[in-house]
Design brief:
The complex is a heterodimer of chains A (447) and B (359).
Chain A (H helix, E strand, L loop, with lengths): L7 H13 L4 H11 L12 H12 L6 H11 L8 H23 L2 H17 L3 H17 L8 H6 L2 H28 L6 H27 L13 E11 L7 E11 L2 E10 L5 E12 L4 E13 L2 E15 L10 E16 L7 E16 L2 E8 L21 E8 L5 E9 L3 E11 L3
Antiparallel strand pairs in A: 1-2, 1-12, 2-3, 3-4, 4-5, 5-6, 6-7, 7-8, 8-9, 9-10, 10-11, 11-12
Helix pairs in contact in A: 1-2, 4-5, 5-6, 7-10, 9-10
Chain B lengths: L3 H11 L7 H9 L2 E4 L2 E5 L4 E7 L2 E6 L4 E7 L2 E8 L6 E4 L4 E2 L1 E4 L5 E8 L2 E8 L9 E6 L10 H8 L4 E7 L8 H11 L6 E4 L11 H6 L4 E5 L2 E6 L8 H13 L4 E6 L17 H13 L4 E4 L5 E6 L2 E6 L15 E8 L4 E8 L2
Parallel strand pairs in B: 4-6, 12-13, 13-14, 16-17, 17-18, 18-20
Antiparallel strand pairs in B: 1-2, 2-5, 3-4, 5-11, 6-10, 7-8, 7-11, 9-10, 12-21, 15-16, 19-20, 21-22
Classes of the chains: A alpha+beta (447), B alpha/beta (359).
C-alpha cells in the first residue's frame, strides 16, 4: 500500500474521531496527518483509484525495482519525529523533485528521466537538504525558547509551527505566573505570617513549578529528542550500591557509601536506604513506603518516610507524609512524547537532639515540595528537579545578594540501563552543598 | 542522552555558589588595620573601622563599647575622633597612666580626643567608666528597619527615654538594599540616639554590593566583652556562615566559656515556623552551629529577619527574634513595631528580655 488510503471504513472512523473531538471531518483529517502521519509527503489520504493506478503502472513494467522506490521514499521521510504542517509544506519542494525522479524511474523513458533528473538536481542544489533545513528549524526553535521564549513560553513550539502546543505552554506559564504572583503578594501582605505562610509558600512553589516546567517542556520539544513513550518500568525489586560525594565547606565529611533497596508488591513500594560517611561524621538512614492510589501511565501515590540523620554533636529524626503524582507530558501536549512530569508535596516533622544541649526534644516542621521534569531515552531515564528541602546533606541554595535561604535545591538524576538488569545511576545536586554520586543498579521483575 | 550535558549546564547555571559569604569574612579580617603617611593603626580584634588616617587626625567607627588601639608613628599632636561610643567613654593613654581630654562632639556618641603622641608605638584604650561593675545592666535590640528609615526615629526616642539602656544591638537589615547612601542615612539617624549601636548585617545589606556595610560600620562578625558579658555578632546575611566565621566562632565560644555569652546574627539558625523556612539555607549547617553553641555554653541567641517577636529555644539555648524595626510586619501576630530591652546578670549569666512596643 503506498500510504493511508481513503476507504469507507476510514471515512466512518474519521467522522467518529472528529465528532469525539468536536471538530469537522476536514479538521480531523488535517490534525490526523499533522500528528500521526508527519512523514506523509502529500498530507492527504490516497484515493482507491490512485492506488489502482500505481499498481497498474508498476506491474506494467518488469524493469521497475520496488526496492529502489522503497529506499528513496525512506530517504525522503528520514525525519520520523513529530513534524508540523509548515515543516511538511517546507519539505514539499524536495518531495516534488523526488516524485519527478520516481516518475522517471517508473516510466523508464531515458530521455524524460534524464531531463527531469537534471531539473531535479538543479532544484535540489538550490535548496538545502531536508536534514539541513530541519537542523536550521530546530536551531531557530531552540533560539526561540530563549528569546523570547524565556518570557513567552511556547515560543519554541511556535517556531516549529505547533501553535496549539505553543498556546498551551503559554497558558501554563500564565497560570504559573498567576500562582507565583498570588503567593508572593500574599506573603508580602501577610508579612509571611505564621498562620498563612504554609499555603502561601505552597502556592508560590506551585506557580514556580508550572513556570519552569512550561519552559523546560518548550525546550524539550525544541531540541527534538527522540524519546521513548513506553511507561517507566517498575521492577519487582531493585538494589543500589554507590559512592556519593558531598562538598560542604562547613562540614567535616565528603565521601559516602550509599546503599538502597526498592521493592514493589502490588500497589505498594518500599525503599529503605542508608548513607554513611567514609571520612568525618555523617550517617543517614531512611525508610520510604508509598501506595499507589491510581495506576497506569498517570499515577498518584501517597506515602511517608522516616529518616534518621546523625552527625557529630547532633541528630535529626523526621517523619514525612507526601502525595506523589506522575504524569506523562504527552497526555497534556502530544508533541512532548517521552517526557514526564512528577510532583511531590507534603509535610514533615523533625525532632532534634543535640548532644550538649541543656534540654532536648525541639521540633520543627518541613514543607515538602518537589517537581521534576523527566524523560526516557530508550531504556535510560533522566530527571531534572527542584526540591524545596533545606535539610539533608545538600540543603537549600546559597545565592549572592538578598535572596539566600529561600530556595531549595536543584538536582539531576540519570539512570542508565545498558542491560535489562544491570544499570548505573548518576546523581548531582546543588544547594548549600554540592552532591555528585555514582551507583550500580541491579533490578529484577517485570521490565 | 546527548541532551543531558545541556541539562547539566542548566543545573550549573541555576545552582548557587557555596562561597557567598567568604569575601565578607576576608574583609572582616582586615578591618581595624590601616597604614598611611608613616602612621599605622591597629584596633585589637578589628573592633573599629578606620575611616580617616591622615597627618594628625584619625577617625574610627567603634564596633564595641571598649577598644584597644595601637598607634605607631613619628608622634606629635593627634586628633582622634571615635564615633559610636558610650557617652561617658574615656580614652586612656599609655596603658592607663593618663586620660585624654574628651571634647564635645557633634553627637552624644561621638568622642573627640586631643592627644600628643610620643614617637614609636602608643597604646590607647577606650574604656567605659563602669567596666569593672559586674552588676546587672540593660541594653536594647532591634532589627529589620529596611524601608521604614523615615519611621525609625520613634524607636530611637523610646530607647533614649530609658537611660538604663547602655547600648543597642542591631541584628541586621538596617536598610532596604544596602547602598552606601542608605547606610549613610542610617548612620545619620543613629545620631539621634544617646547610646551607641553595634550591628551585624542582614540580607538587605547585600542588595547593592557585598561589603558596603563593612565600608560604613566595620566588621559583620565580631566579639567583645562588656562588664563580664561576651557579645558575639555573626554575619549570616547570606543564610550561612563563611568557613572562616565558623573558625572565629569556635574561638569566641572558647574564650567566652565562663562568661555570660550572647550570640547574635540576622538569619535565625532555624526558623521557629519550619514551613516558612526563614532560617539558614542548610538546616544541617544550622544544627552544627547550634551543637557548638550548646557545647560552648552560649546563653542567648538573638536573630532578626522575621518581622515579628518570637521567643523560643534552640539546642536548649533561649532564643529571640526582634524583627520589629518597621519592615513589612508579620500580620496576625499581635506584635507590631518594637524593640527588645534585655537585662543581663553577669553573675548568674541570665538574660531577661522584655518586649517594648512602639506602635
Amino acid at each position: 500500500m503506498p500510504g493511508p488510503t481513503w476507504t469507507e471504513g476510514v471515512d466512518k472512523y474519521m467522522e467518529e474521531v472528529a465528532a469525539q473531538q468536536s471538530m469537522t471531518p476536514a479538521e480531523g483529517i488535517s490534525r490526523y496527518f499533522i500528528k500521526e502521519e508527519p512523514a506523509s509527503i502529500i498530507q492527504r489520504f490516497i484515493e482507491v483509484d490512485e492506488v489502482a493506478q500505481a499498481v497498474v503502472m508498476t506491474a506494467a513494467n518488469a524493469a521497475i525495482n520496488g526496492a529502489s522506490v522503497h529506499a528513496l521514499i525512506r530517504h525522503l521521510s528520514a525525519d520520523h519525529r513529530p513534524a508540523t504542517l509548515p515543516s511538511v509544506l517546507e519539505s514539499t519542494g524536495s518531495a516534488i523533485s523526488a516524485l519527478s525522479i520516481i516518475a522517471a524511474l517508473i516510466t523508464g523513458l531515458p530521455g524524460i528521466s534524464q531531463a527531469q533528473a537534471t531539473q531535479s538536481s538543479s532544484v535540489a542544489a538550490a535548496r538545502p537538504p531536508e536534514a539541513e533545513r530541519d537542523t536550521r528549524r530546530r536551531a531557530l526553535a531552540l533560539t526561540a525558547t530563549f528569546v523570547p521564549g524565556l518570557l513567552l513560553h511556547g515560543a519554541g513550539h511556535f517556531a516549529l509551527g505547533d501553535r496549539e502546543t505553543a498556546l498551551g505552554l503559554l497558558a501554563t506559564e500564565g497560570l504559573g505566573l498567576g500562582l507565583l504572583a498570588l503567593g508572593v503578594v500574599g506573603l508580602a501582605i501577610t508579612g509571611a505570617s505564621r498562620r498563612t505562610v504554609g499555603p502561601l509558600t505552597a502556592t508560590t512553589l506551585s506557580g514556580f513549578g508550572l513556570f519552569t516546567l512550561s519552559w523546560s517542556a518548550d525546550l524539550w520539544a525544541a531540541v527534538g529528542v527522540d524519546a521513548d513513550t513506553s511507561p517507566l518500568p517498575r521492577p519487582a525489586w531493585q538494589t543500589e550500591l554507590g559512592y556519593q560525594h558531598i562538598y560542604d565547606p562547613t562540614a567535616d565529611y565528603g565521601p559516602f557509601a550509599a546503599v538502597a533497596f526498592e521493592a514493589r508488591r502490588g500497589r505498594w513500594r518500599l525503599r529503605p536506604s542508608a548513607w554513611t560517611a567514609l571520612a568525618g561524621s555523617g550517617t543517614r538512614l531512611r525508610f520510604e513506603l508509598h501506595r499507589a492510589v491510581s495506576d497506569g501511565p498517570s499515577r498518584l501515590a501517597f506515602g511517608g518516610a522516616a529518616t534518621h540523620h546523625r552527625e557529630a554533636g547532633f541528630s535529626v529524626s523526621s517523619g514525612e507524609l507526601t502525595l506523589r503524582a506522575h504524569l506523562p507530558a504527552e497526555q497534556l501536549w502530544a508533541p512532548l512524547r517521552g517526557a514526564f512530569f512528577e510532583v511531590e508535596a507534603g509535610l514533615g516533622l523533625e525532632l532534634y537532639d543535640y548532644r550538649a544541649a541543656r534540654s532536648g526534644g525541639e521540633t520543627s516542621e518541613l514543607l515538602l515540595f518537589r517537581f521534576t521534569q523527566g524523560a526516557r531515552f530508550g531504556p535510560h531515564v533522566a530527571r531534572l528537579y527542584y526540591d524545596h528541602r533545606h535539610d539533608d546533606f545538600v540543603g537549600g541554595l546559597k545565592v549572592p545578594g538578598l535572596g539566600s535561604g529561600i530556595a531549595g535545591r536543584f538536582g539531576l538524576d540519570v539512570e542508565l540501563w545498558p542491560t535489562a538488569r544491570w544499570g548505573a545511576r548518576i546523581s548531582a545536586a546543588s544547594g548549600a552543598a554540592h552532591h555528585a554520586g555514582l551507583s550500580l543498579l541491579l533490578r529484577e521483575g517485570p521490565l | 542522552m546527548t541532551r543531558v550535558p545541556g541539562y547539566l549546564a542548566l543545573l550549573v547555571v541555576s545552582s548557587g555558589c557555596l562561597n557567598v559569604a567568604d569575601l565578607r569574612a576576608e574583609r572582616d579580617a582586615v578591618i581595624g588595620s590601616a597604614t598611611a603617611n608613616g602612621v599605622s593603626v591597629q584596633v585589637q580584634d578589628g573592633l573599629a573601622r578606620v575611616r580617616v588616617l591622615e597627618a594628625g587626625r584619625i577617625e574610627l567607627w567603634a564596633g564595641a563599647p571598649e577598644l584597644v588601639l595601637q598607634i605607631e608613628g613619628p608622634g606629635g599632636p593627634l586628633t582622634l575622633q571615635i564615633d559610636n561610643v558610650l557617652a561617658d567613654a574615656e580614652l586612656q593613654v599609655g596603658g592607663g597612666t593618663q586620660t585624654a581630654t574628651r571634647s564635645v562632639g557633634a553627637r552624644v556618641t561621638q568622642g573627640v580626643f586631643e592627644l600628643t603622641l610620643p614617637p614609636g608605638r602608643t597604646e590607647l584604650r577606650l574604656v567605659a567608666p563602669d567596666r569593672a561593675d559586674l552588676g546587672r545592666f540593660r541594653f536594647a535590640v532591634f532589627a529589620d528597619v529596611q524601608e521604614r528609615i523615615d519611621d525609625v526615629q520613634d524607636i530611637f526616642e523610646r530607647i533614649n527615654a530609658d537611660p538604663s539602656l547602655r547600648f543597642c544591638l542591631i541584628s541586621g537589615d538596617l536598610t532596604e538594599q544596602g547602598s552606601p547612601e542608605e547606610l549613610a542615612r542610617f548612620e545619620l539617624e543613629l545620631g539621634r540616639l544617646n547610646v551607641p549601636c553595634y550591628a551585624t548585617l542582614g540580607n538587605h545589606e547585600l542588595g547593592n554590593g557585598n561589603t558596603n556595610f563593612h565600608d560604613q560600620f566595620g566588621r559583620g562578625s565580631a566579639s567583645f566583652v562588656f562588664r563580664g558579658v561576651r557579645f558575639t555578632r555573626l554575619d549570616s546575611g547570606s543564610a550561612t556562615l563563611a568557613p572562616q566565621t565558623h573558625t572565629w566562632l569556635d574561638g569566641w565560644l572558647q574564650a567566652g566559656g565562663d562568661q555570660a555569652h550572647l550570640v547574635m546574627m540576622h538569619h535565625p539558625l532555624l526558623d521557629p515556623i519550619g514551613t516558612r523556612g526563614g532560617g539558614f539555607a542548610s538546616r544541617n549547617e544550622a544544627h552544627r552551629i547550634l551543637a557548638r553553641l550548646a557545647a560552648g555554653h552560649a546563653d542567648l541567641t538573638i536573630y532578626g529577619h522575621v518581622h515579628s517577636f518570637y521567643t523560643f529555644s534552640n539546642a536548649g539555648i533561649p532564643a529571640l527574634i526582634a524583627g520589629g524595626g518597621g519592615a513589612i510586619p508579620e500580620r496576625l501576630d499581635g506584635v507590631g513595631r518594637h524593640f527588645v530591652a534585655i537585662q543581663v546578670d553577669p553573675q548568674t549569666q541570665h538574660f531577661e528580655p522584655a518586649l517594648v512596643r512602639v506602635d
